[in-house]
Specification:
Layout (H helix, E strand, L loop, with lengths): L4 H6 L4 H13 L6 H7 L7 E5 L5 H8 L3 E6 L2 H10 L4 E4 L16 E6 L12 H10 L1 E12 L14 H10 L2 E7 L12 E8 L10
Parallel strand pairs: 1-2, 1-4, 2-3, 4-5
Antiparallel strand pairs: 5-7, 6-7
């Protein structure tokens, strides 16, 4: 599989450094659970959540603490090692989102909510964005939601330019059978007004999701 933009930037062993940075930030009293709070407002406790691009598990672990049935997926083995260390009881799966094909039983699909936070979409492997969105949609329940937050400008990304804009992302979602339900400027739910970061919530266009291509 092609390397994701994240893997190209981070190298092979950034999991521990990333986890330590988040822990240090939390120790200052900074709010580090905005994504989990946003998702908790959309789905009741007990709902099945797929944290796609889960990294070290920060959001997934918090959602599990809030009573959600969470599965984490990431292509970075070093990040997943930290996730497994912090919460060995949760399901952590190493996979590229563009090739995601979880079993339709057990701790896998369908999910009530699929989350991509932390600039997952722009840090996918170049050219795989549309396929990744299709694969994420394929894991949604008929009433499920796809929630994605990512930067739209270099100031919000570890990149020199933003590889995807909202019109393109919405087009990928539409091709997968999804429509925009809500768009915010932050994980706190502030209204979106053409800023450099957006949180988008998409749902199925109809109650019965189309058959997703493999």
């Amino acid at each position: 599989m092609p390397m994701t933009r994240w893997q190209e930037l981070a190298g092979g062993d950034r999991g521990r450094q990333y986890a330590e940075r988040i822990a240090a930030l939390a120790a200052t009293g900074a709010a580090v659970h905005g994504e989990a709070a946003f998702c908790a407002a959309l789905a009741p406790a007990g709902a099945r959540v797929l944290d796609a691009g889960c990294g070290t598990g920060r959001v997934a672990v918090r959602l599990a603490e809030l009573g959600y049935d969470v599965t984490g997926v990431d292509a970075d083995a070093s990040m997943l090692a930290e996730a497994r260390r912090s919460a060995p009881e949760l399901a952590w799966i190493e996979a590229d989102l563009a090739d995601l094909d979880l079993p339709a039983a057990g701790a896998a699909a369908p999910f009530d909510l699929v989350l991509t936070a932390g600039n997952v979409i722009p840090l996918l492997a170049a050219g795989t964005e549309a396929r990744a969105v299709r694969r994420l949609a394929a894991h949604l329940a008929p009433t499920g939601l796809l929630v994605s937050g990512f930067g739209l400008a270099p100031a919000e990304l570890p990149l020199d330019e933003a590889p995807i804009d909202l019109a393109t992302y919405d087009a990928h979602c539409a091709a997968a059978g999804l429509v925009l339900e809500q768009r915010c400027a932050t994980w706190d739910g502030d209204p979106y007004a053409d800023g450099p970061y957006a949180v988008s919530v998409h749902r199925w266009r109809s109650a019965a999701p189309p058959a997703a291509p493999r």
